[in-house]
Write a sequence for this structure.
């Protein structure tokens, strides 16, 4: 059981580039979510999904897209990266939503120059 | 004003001391989480509470729904307890977590 995996661990992008952060879980969890963590701000919810085919916006969704075509995968797309998106991104999953017990991935550190 | 406030922001203590970290929130909630973020960055869920008290090893979490307050206690603290402790709530009717900014705990040998 790998739990929640995220790739890549580190990424540097130039302003305007696009990329996808990958997140996968092998626990058959229905609920998955993406958070960003910035110094002095704490974690903030970007997008979440309560099951395959269903996604919704969190607190800070602008500049990010998500899709959930399978139960296992929940990729986060940056459409046109901006320096304000420099952050550490965490994916998490929970058996059901709301997230009564969450399992976090190891994080992706993204720098946009 | 943040909906979830933690205190203190930073705490340094000696090994063996009893530690208390506080979390106050200003919204109606269905549950509250305590999380631990290791120095390497990984986040682990410690407790999920909707009432009363939970204990796991040297960690104890309590919640008072009427006062909108929760505490995380660490007994016989150890340097390996050094981490950031994060309080997060599930607002009533919501599907996501709202987080406090964390308490940075250092336990010195």
């Amino acid at each position: 059981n790998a739990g929640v995996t995220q790739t890549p661990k580190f990424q540097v992008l130039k302003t305007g580039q696009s990329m996808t952060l990958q997140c996968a879980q092998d626990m058959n969890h229905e609920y998955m979510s993406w958070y960003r963590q910035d110094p002095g701000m704490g974690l903030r919810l970007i997008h979440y999904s309560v099951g395959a085919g269903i996604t919704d916006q969190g607190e800070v969704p602008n500049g990010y897209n998500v899709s959930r075509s399978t139960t296992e995968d929940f990729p986060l797309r940056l459409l046109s990266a901006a320096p304000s998106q420099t952050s550490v991104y965490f994916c998490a999953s929970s058996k059901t939503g709301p997230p009564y017990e969450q399992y976090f991935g190891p994080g992706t550190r993204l720098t946009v120059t | 004003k943040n909906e979830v406030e933690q205190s203190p922001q930073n705490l340094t203590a000696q090994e063996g001391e009893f530690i208390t970290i506080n979390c106050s929130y200003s919204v109606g909630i269905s549950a509250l989480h305590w999380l631990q973020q290791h120095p390497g960055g990984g986040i682990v869920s410690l407790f999920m509470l909707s009432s009363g008290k939970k204990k796991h090893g040297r960690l104890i979490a309590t919640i008072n729904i009427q006062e909108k307050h929760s505490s995380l206690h660490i007994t016989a603290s150890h340097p390996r307890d050094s981490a950031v402790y994060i309080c997060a709530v599930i607002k009533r009717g919501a599907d996501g977590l709202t987080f406090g900014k964390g308490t940075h705990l250092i336990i010195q040998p």
About this structure: The mean pLDDT of chain B is 95.
